[in-house]
Amino acid sequence: MSRNLLLISTSSTHGTGYLEHCEAEIKELLQGKSSVLFIPYARPSGISHKDYTTKARETFERMGFTLTGVHEATDPVKAVEQAEAVFIGGGNTFLLLRQLYANKLVAPLQERVKKGMPYIGTSAGTNVAGKTIGTTNDMPIVFPKTFDALQLVPFNFNPHYQDPEPDSKHMGETRETRINEFHVHNTQPVVGLREGSMLHVTGDKIELKGPLTARIFLQGQKPQEFKPGEDITFLLEAV
């Protein structure tokens, strides 16, 4: 498979602008490309498709790429089939997945990615690249036809992964607790991506990028921490 994916935990980190912290990685991924198709279906904070696309367009134009929104196309399927690259932004993962199915974009995205089309996801856009959306942090504000995602990789994500605060008096479940609950019923690995971290998947190789470690959860095992540069390609062998 000729995968070329950049799967990012978040669109912005503290003190940085939209996509600023991952600009170098985006430019590297899109080397030789001139245009990007944006899928704004996740609608963070309920923002309109038009306004969300305007925000993304301003950022990508500053990086030297043209950007159009898939909702602007007469035929969304054809837009995906003809795209040089695709970017799916963050927001609500349940809404995003429902709209991908409603607009019949799941299969075309899978086919184009298999053939090497660059795919960029942030937050919800990273969630839907995994096997299912069962480890998203989002509220189920709508109900998609299935939790099965694009399955561009055979594992799940937990973007915005947070470690417990040592002095916190909060008595609710931690992210780790929630993921352990998930693994009572599901077998696929889960990658906890902290803010500023991202995975670059090229073919059958994975590279962790960013300043922080990633916390990887395997069913029935203690969580493991992996540093940028360490080999985590074993995740692609998950079943």
UniProtKB/TrEMBL annotation:
<dbReference type="InterPro" id="IPR029062">
    <property type="entry name" value="Class_I_gatase-like"/>
</dbReference>
<dbReference type="InterPro" id="IPR005320">
    <property type="entry name" value="Peptidase_S51"/>
</dbReference>
<keyword id="KW-0645">Protease</keyword>
<keyword id="KW-0224">Dipeptidase</keyword>
<keyword id="KW-0378">Hydrolase</keyword>
<dbReference type="Pfam" id="PF03575">
    <property type="entry name" value="Peptidase_S51"/>
</dbReference>
<comment type="similarity">
    <text>Belongs to the peptidase S51 family.</text>
</comment>
<dbReference type="GO" id="GO:0016805">
    <property type="term" value="F:dipeptidase activity"/>
</dbReference>
<keyword id="KW-0720">Serine protease</keyword>
<protein>
    <submittedName>
        <fullName>Dipeptidase PepE</fullName>
        <ecNumber>3.4.13.21</ecNumber>
    </submittedName>
</protein>
